[in-house]
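Supplementary Methods, section 5.1.

A reviewer requested that the exact input to the structure prediction be made available. We therefore reproduce it here, unchanged from the version used in the analyses.
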Amino acid sequence: MSDSIVKDCIETLSKIVNVSTGLAHPLDDSRAKELFKALHAKGVVLDEDEIYDIAIANGWKDSHAKKLSQLAEKIGNGGRVVIKHPRGWGEPTVEKIMASY
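The structure derived from this sequence is encoded token-by-token as follows.
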């Protein structure tokens, strides 16, 4: 089930961010960090290879998909990140997706 949750979360993120520029925009970077932190808090495994594959399937360029998946892995391993532009987007998004299962 967590694979499906991760897939749905990345698909949702991919509809909001500009996948052609990846996480270059500060708001896109913050959204990704919020999303991965919320997933990690729920105990969802953030596998770098899985997230890379999902990002590629959702139109991310290779380099951007790699950066996204590395960010996810860092957060999944308990690494600290700074969310410069918090929007409170991650937790409600993860809650909504998890509630659909």
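Residues 55 and 65 are 5 Å apart (CA to CA). These observations are discussed further in the main text.
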